[in-house]
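Hi R.,

As promised on Friday, here is the backbone we talked about, encoded as structure tokens. Could you run it through your design pipeline when you get a chance and send me back a sequence?
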């Protein structure tokens, strides 16, 4: 007989283990395939020769790391955790089972603890067995870096704890079994989903916002998304460390989520203790969440619809776009509200007076949000950081430029302000049908000292008027790009002064073979060609020009310069800091140079090197297109 204060029921525990063995059995088979079996089949025994043994050991280590990284995938852990939670608490989603289980002389506390422990063991026991078997495979393949296998186990168990606890909480909030995975996916992507929806609308209606969805400090509020992008075991890439260094990323995040998971177990119990059995079959089993579900669904759909309508009508005027977006928000928001209520009421009869009144409130909030974003109520368009807040400023049009000195940062900031001030003219020019031109873009990235970033992106209408106007925004950007230091940094990195050419080739179109052929320049001309390149940049012969003028000036042949920098290449990358590309890791690279008819110094060296023949001629892009059209 169970004690009145018991928290664990052995009979129910045994029933869970024996009745639901296919669940943990399938998970075990999956883990065994993903880690020890894959590792065994992808690696080989060390060879007998010293060189062969070393090479095999390096290959085995790389494959070992790849197997660990693949088996650590958070999505697999969350799927397994959700299935386990649905399995042990399946009785909560059927009237007969719920009433029968709760009629037994077993407290809810006892049921909850027993089922929680059972489901968690479904996860961690297969993980521990996989760890042990993989360790033996490592011994057989002479892989000694077992500490990373232990990291895999600890991180997988930590993610399992959080994912399982979260799935249980979601399960307690609904009365439908199939709603559990749906709501769990929504919960795991709710924050980034809302951000994404609002960003789409801002992109269409706020001047300067771009389409790229980027990392935010708040992304941890979407656990699965955050773990997928911040947890990994991988080999560090680089010329000096390739194949020798394994990096474990995200251990701290997993530990924090695991602690939150412990708290979620208690939250799940509090909900379960007060859960009414009459809510079996309800989409939402907690009363106060029902209006949240209605309002949240309606507002999100309204914002998304407004964004899509604005995107479809992007060629319309700003006023027309806003009116259409507001109309789309009203219709879609109202429809979404009543569809959500149908799910809650399990009936089509939802058009009651109080619901219609509530719907009016939801639509009003949606309209305020759309109108506020469209009119830039919070000043997003004109937001420009102060120099004192910044670590660096990046600008990217034809080339990427980085400024980390106060004066240079001020210059790029001033250029950005000029674009904002010229907003009306630029928008009008880009929508002009009388004088159409190419539409290049310029992007700005502000790297704050606290590690956050601000991005802006603008379309630059390349019309005749903009090109001819000397102080136009377009020409201001070209002037900055074409400065010697900026141009060279774009080709060879910020530390271009220590770069050395090791090979130069030109792609010529061969009429005889009807294809482009790569012709290499003799080594005796490398330095001479490199100096000619720098001289043409200094004199302004080689420079970026408007796209509409390039066809008649630039050659269809391009110059490829292979170069080496003993100090490591500090490549300017507008996305580099955010995505973790380390400056100075790579020491060699290839710069591709499009040169033009004004590059007299480069053309002289090309002629001296004897690269020009009857079959290998330099043609401008317009001449090349004409030749191809004749054939």
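Update: got your reply. Pasting your designed sequence below so it's all in one thread:
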């Amino acid at each position: 007989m169970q004690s009145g204060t018991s928290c664990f029921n052995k009979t129910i525990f045994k029933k869970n283990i024996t009745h639901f063995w296919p669940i943990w059995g399938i998970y075990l088979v999956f883990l065994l395939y993903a880690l020890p079996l894959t590792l065994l089949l992808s690696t080989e025994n060390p060879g007998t020769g010293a060189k062969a043994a070393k090479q095999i050991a390096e290959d085995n280590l790389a494959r070992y790391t790849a197997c660990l990284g693949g088996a650590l995938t958070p999505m697999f852990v969350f799927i397994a955790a959700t299935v386990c939670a649905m399995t042990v608490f399946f009785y909560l989603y059927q009237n007969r089972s719920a009433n029968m289980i709760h009629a037994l002389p077993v407290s809810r506390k006892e049921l909850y603890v027993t089922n929680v422990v059972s489901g968690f063991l479904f996860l961690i026991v297969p993980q521990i067995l996989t760890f042990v078997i993989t360790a033996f495979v490592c011994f057989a393949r002479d892989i000694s870096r077992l500490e990373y296998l232990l990291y895999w186990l600890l991180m997988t168990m930590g993610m399992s704890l959080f994912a399982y606890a979260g799935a249980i909480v979601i399960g307690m909030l609904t009365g439908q079994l199939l709603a559990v995975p749906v709501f769990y996916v929504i919960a795991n992507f709710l924050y980034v989903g809302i951000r994404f929806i609002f960003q789409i609308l801002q992109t269409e209606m706020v001047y300067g916002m771009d389409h790229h969805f980027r990392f935010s400090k708040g992304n941890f509020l979407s656990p699965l998304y955050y773990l997928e992008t911040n947890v990994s075991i991988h080999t560090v890439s680089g010329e000096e460390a390739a194949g020798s260094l394994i990096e474990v990323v995200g251990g701290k995040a997993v530990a924090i989520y695991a602690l939150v998971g412990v708290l979620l177990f208690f939250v799940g119990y509090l909900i379960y203790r007060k859960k009414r059995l009459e809510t079996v079959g309800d989409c939402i089993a907690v009363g106060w969440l029902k209006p949240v579900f209605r309002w949240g669904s309606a507002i999100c759909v309204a914002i998304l619809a407004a964004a899509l309508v604005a995107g479809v009508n992007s060629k319309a005027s700003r006023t027309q776009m806003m009116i259409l977006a507001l109309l789309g928000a009203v219709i879609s928001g109202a429809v979404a509200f009543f569809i959500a209520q149908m799910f809650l009421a399990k009936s089509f009869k939802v058009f009651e007076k109080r619901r219609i009144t509530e719907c009016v409130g939801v639509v009003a909030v949606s309209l305020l949000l759309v109108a506020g974003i469209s009119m830039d109520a919070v000043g997003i368009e004109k937001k420009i950081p102060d120099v004192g807040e910044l670590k660096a400023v990046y600008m990217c049009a034809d080339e990427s430029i980085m400024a980390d000195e106060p004066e240079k940062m001020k210059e790029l900031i001033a250029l950005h302000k000029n674009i904002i001030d010229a907003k009306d003219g630029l928008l009008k020019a880009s929508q002009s049908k009388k004088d159409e031109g190419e539409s290049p873009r310029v992007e700005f990235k502000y790297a704050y000292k606290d590690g956050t970033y601000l991005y802006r992106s603008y379309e630059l209408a390349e019309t005749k008027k903009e090109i001819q106007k000397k102080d136009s925004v377009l020409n201001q950007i070209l002037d900055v790009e074409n400065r010697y230091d900026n141009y060279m940094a774009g080709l060879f990195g910020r530390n271009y002064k220590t770069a050395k050419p090791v090979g130069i080739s030109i792609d010529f179109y061969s009429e005889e073979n009807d294809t482009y052929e790569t012709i290499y320049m003799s080594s005796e001309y490398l330095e001479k060609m490199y100096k000619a390149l720098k001289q043409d940049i200094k004199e302004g012969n080689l420079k970026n020009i408007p796209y509409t003028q390039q066809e008649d000036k630039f050659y269809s042949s391009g110059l490829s310069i292979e170069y080496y920098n003993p100090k490591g290449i500090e490549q300017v990358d507008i996305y580099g800091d955010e995505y973790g590309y380390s400056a100075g890791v790579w020491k060699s690279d290839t710069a591709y140079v499009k040169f033009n008819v004004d590059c007299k110094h480069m053309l002289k060296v090309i002629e001296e090197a004897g690269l020009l023949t009857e079959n290998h001629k330099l043609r401008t892009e317009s001449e090349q297109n004409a030749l191809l059209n004749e054939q």
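One thing I noticed while checking it: Residues 239-243 have pLDDT under 50 and may be disordered.

Thanks again,
M.
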